[in-house]
Amino acid sequence: MKSSVIVFPGSNCDRDIAVALNKMEFKNQMIWHKETTLPKSDLIVIPGGFSYGDYLRSGAIAGKSAIINEVIKSANAGCLVLGICNGFQILTETGLLKGTLLRNKNLKFINKDVNIKVINNKTKFSSNYKKNQVLKINIAHNEGNYFTNSDHLKDLKNNNLIAFQYCDESGNVNEQSNPNGALENIAGIYNSNKNILGMMPHPERMIDNYVSNTDGINLFSSLLN
Amino acid sequence: MKITNKIIERHGLKMSEYERIQKLLKRDPNLLELGIFSAMWNEHCSYKSSRLHLKKLPTKGKQVIQGPGENAGVIDIGEDDAIVFKIESHNHPSYIEPYQGAATGVGGILRDVFTMGARPIALLNSIHFGSPSHPKTKSLLNGVVSGIGGYGNCIGIPTVAGETKFNKTYNENILVNAMAVGHVKKDKIFYSKAKGINKSVVYVGSKTGRDGIHGASMASAEFNEDTEEKKPTVQVGDPFTEKLLMEACLELMRDDSIIAIQDMGAAGLTSSSVEMASKGSLGIELELERVPCREENMTPYEMMLSESQERMLIILEDGKENYARNIFKKWDLDFVIIGKTTESKNLTLKYEGKLVGEIPIDALSSNAPIYDRKWVKKKINNDKIDIKSLKKIKIEDALIKILSSPNNSSKRWVTEQYDQMVMCDTVQRSGSDAAVIRIHKKNKAIAVTVDSSANYCKSHPITGGKQIVCENWRNLISVGAKPLAITNCLNFGNPEKKEIMGEFTECLQGIKEACEFLDYPVVSGNVSFYNGTNQKNIFPTPVVGGVGLINKCNQTIGHHFKNENSFIILLGKTFGHIEQSCFLRENYYILEGNPPTVNLKNEKNNGEMVLTLINKNLVESAHDVSEGGLIVALSEMSIGSKYGLKIEKQKNLRNLTQYLFGEDQGRYLLEIKEENLNDTVKLLKNSNIYYENIGNTQKDYFEIEGEMKLSINDLFKINNQWYKSY
What we know:
The complex is a heterodimer. Chain A has five helices and eleven strands; from the N terminus they run βαββαβαββββαβββα. By secondary structure, chain A is an alpha/beta fold. The model of chain A has no long low-confidence stretch (mean pLDDT 97). Chain B has 26 helices and 28 strands.
């Protein structure tokens, strides 16, 4: 499986995702933001970080960069696209995913391990997880408070487009287990074709028992199916 | 412009220093030259009050590749790997403008590390605030923590360890010390020594603005009523540009294009060019109209003294200019050849073809003033506190008071604002005795930690100096690392006062003795004097940052209890030394007396024994006993674990309170599984190491037989409430 990781100035989880993809034996390439063509890829990853310093608004400038038109073209043609953290923010800026990421409710950067629940396990990103499986996963963001309008929220629910929700250890989705104020505890969503996933938590940080756990591995292994 | 006494004073120079300038130049300086002297001769850059004392520190060892004198120290961690690290203060700017002051402190120390060719892999900090009830403390704390996080999170280097302390001594002068650690291949280390004549001197990075002019001079004076007016001297950080600069520099460093490289830190373009020329015994000629400027009509004076961030000066090999320019172009950074190296041994400054200043390099560096300042020995208060004469307090109440105090509460509110996981090699995060960072793509790891003990240093500077080195060493041992070397940040008051100079001299004496005995050399550091406002000086606060090596990263252990029914071994002797303890401070506000003595021989033997036991996989978890004594250390092993403990009634004990809360040094707590107990005890006995088997772990409860029983959930809540309610 061929993957491409888009590297913006200020991306800082690009190496981490590359390590994860290589470990899972993807044939991965790093694509610099000034490129105007994308190599043929089965998966495009937009990594976390602070693209263009997150100046103006997180993800806003990356959403207008040279390479992003190619990403949009590929996504519309059905290529799998994964946006993690800043990558999720960028995807909402391009319109590939609807809604937006507001500042965390406590107005502070949050880095900690949280629990999320797999809501839809019938997608190319999640088929190796069980439905409602609880994952322990690291978040690290300042703007992770997902918000969208009520029509879109209805659409997300009706069409099973919510990928993950923040929850407690036992899988209860409630206010106490919501780290950043996200609407309905949403931690990640799909587009209507389910070929694009945007998520705030970092699955690439959860592939190695020495530093954390291996709860992120099945996301990558699902993609290989 | 005529140089008047007022102008000299405004530049922070003494009259005698001005006369020295006249003698060295054999004429009067012009204003630009005076500014340059002021930037190079201030305390922050010249170390004029500390240099004679710093020379006494041990800086060598077979693990040392580069000691003090470069951008950062470098140590050998085996194979072709080396670690580059340094700590630096950004106290004065952080008090004036906490967010930017702290952020640029992080940015500055990162540049020191990647300038040497290393990719930064960890950030640490030691931050000290005034009393929580002081009206400024809350906003300073918020600003500093978000500034540290704002910079480190954006550039993508994990902030993995640190300390946050409160003491009213810092009410008017907080401390913000930042440490950076990087990894480099031994044959790819870059230095700042210029070589060769007519080589291009290249300016890269951000443009030069008017921010930070005279920043180093500001950091070399006490604060007073006018402090607020000094805001313009604080630099503004841009971590995004620093990220680009770091990647561009590291990309250029893959090749052999660079002869010498120096970041523009304190005193900006001035100190970077003087440093490189001075180390290479060369001259440097700059054509200042070429300097990329952010603002219009900047004068040579402003360009030379600006402390705008995220800039570097590079001396390039012949013919490499285009190659290097393309790399910086890729990263959208300025790249301008602004001058060349010369034979003259002068700093020669031209502006639009005209000579605007010329100073012998020696006059700025080796001929800078050095002071052997007067100092006096600390008068030691040998008062003993008779604990029986104090109002009786229950063990449980005293413990709760300590665990819920600002200084001993869980620091999660702070550390959750820092990205600790980016780069995906953080094996142990904040809250551990030391953070553990794996070397990328290898099986080995380093452990890093920072420590300070201002109360101990104030009451007995020599002991305090020894103690911080030993505590730092113990913290590394506790995670299974062999301690290799330290960096130090020496935060003191006004060195022109003989008592302060005495504190400095004696603390350094203590640090030296401990470092020598433990083969734990000092490879880099920084001195920050004039920490005080209106003659009120801070407690002496040397901060030690240590680095240790773990050969196999699966051998590191944490400090949380891992099993039920494990044995708890207290290694090292308990005398019940209660003066200067957290117990007396938090419960009785008693600040008198001496800190516990430090026995270096015991420290070494005990530490080496703990490391042996960990390396033999006999230990489940370990924790050093420090502030708060035995009972606080035991609580810390329970909080965050599923297991508490039961400590049996101790026989023949003179005083249980002193036993539990005394802060005797050289002690560790070890969790040993039953099946490993015999082997452990045999090793301890054979080596004549004093130990006690004090009890066992148990589920859910923290229990001291006959005295107290608390659920570990309650303990967790007690320890995690202060920041939330502040």
